[in-house]
Specification:
This protein is α/β, with parallel strands linked by helices. The protein has helices spanning 22-35, 43-50, 88-99, 117-127, 139-144, 181-199, 216-229, 264-274; strands at 5-8, 39-40, 61-68, 77-79, 83-85, 109-113, 148-152, 206-208, 234-239, 252-256. Bound molecules: zinc ion.
């Protein structure tokens, strides 16, 4: 089994070109995936196959994820530079109108979201447009649409724009600073509880390291022990490899748009060699 997991950031809108606007990129990439005859599967199916809860996935599968959970995942926006921007959700809807539901019956996106309302507000003020576009009211309708999973990207991303130090003496800006149980519960268990309130009776099951920063404590100790108790199945990072049956459960790899590929041609090359 070799399944590439592609990752987008809806907050990356620097213009209207493929490189620097992940909405333009996702629209083109969905068309490319279709043209290459690949099959989009929910990320949880990849994890279930990895954990041998189901048969390994056949060749030609690809999974989609996106990080940080801004409203641009789900809602269109008018951007001061880029103009009207189609949300990831509506790009998937457009794709299915164009190609028909039978084209990609497993079309699905997994959003790794920042849980804390206060942290999202601060990041909206300082990193987005300060227009209140970093909410959580879209999580449940997205999840209920059947096209989204809402998963754990930490309580506050340990973002550098937050007050430093944070609770439990957390030094900001590096998720590898989450190196004991108090800090890990603050970031991961607290986020799990908040997200699960919005998904009830369903639950979040996946974690993704903010910034791709991994502490030995989280990877070796907390996630394999307490993480499993919290209901977590696996953790994702970057890594630029397909998920295989020999991947590391607490460090499953993904490819990041704008970093591991910068054009449809590079993605085509990546998918041909990875899948
Ligand atoms: Zn992130």
């Amino acid at each position: 089994m070799r399944v590439p997991v592609l990752t987008y950031h809806a907050g990356i809108i620097n213009g209207t070109d493929y490189l620097g606007n992940d909405h333009v990129a996702l629209a083109e990439d969905l068309a490319l995936i279709q043209r290459l005859g690949l099959r989009i599967v929910p990320l949880q199916e990849v994890v279930d196959a990895f954990l041998e809860r189901r048969d390994p996935l056949p060749s030609g599968c690809v999974a989609l994820s996106c990080d940080d959970g801004t409203d641009y995942d789900y809602r269109d926006l008018d951007h001061p530079v880029a103009g009207p921007v189609r949300s990831f959700h509506n790009l998937m809807t457009d794709f299915q109108f164009r190609h028909g539901h039978a084209a990609q019956p497993g079309l699905h996106m997994t959003a790794f979201v920042v849980a804390s309302p206060e942290a999202r507000q601060r990041m909206d003020e300082r990193c987005l447009q300060d227009c209140g576009n970093y909410s959580d009211d879209w999580w449940r309708p997205a999840f209920l649409s059947g096209r989204w999973a809402i998963e754990n990207h930490g309580w506050d991303h340990n973002h550098p724009e937050l007050d430093d130090p944070g609770p439990h003496g957390i030094r900001r800006g590096d998720f590898a600073n989450i190196d004991n149980v108090e800090k890990a519960d603050y970031e991961i268990a607290q986020a799990r509880d908040y997200i699960d309130q919005h998904l009830s009776p369903s639950r979040s099951r996946l974690f993704c390291y903010p910034f791709g920063h991994v502490s030995d404590y989280l990877h070796d100790d907390y996630l394999p022990g307490r993480g499993v108790e919290l209901g977590l199945d696996a953790a994702f990072c970057d890594g630029a490899e397909p998920v295989t049956l020999s991947s590391d459960r607490w460090l499953l790899p993904r490819y990041i748009c704008g970093w591991h590929w910068k054009s449809p041609g590079e993605l085509e090359q990546l998918l041909r060699t990875a899948g």
